[in-house]
Write a structure and sequence with these properties.
The protein has about 40 residues and is mostly helical. Helix content is about 60%, strand content about 0%. The protein starts with a helix and ends with a helix.
């Protein structure tokens, strides 16, 4: 799906600049947080 599409799907904002390591890590962490919450 890709990070940007996942952010859009979950209605999460893009933090920082796409393809910048630290910003991508923050965005992926946000996606993971939503996914983990939806499992409980």
């Amino acid at each position: 799906m890709g990070m940007q599409k996942a952010l859009d799907y979950l209605k999460l904002p893009l933090i920082g600049t796409h393809h910048r390591g630290v910003d991508d890590a923050s965005n992926i962490a946000s996606i993971l947080e939503v996914m983990m919450k939806s499992q409980h």
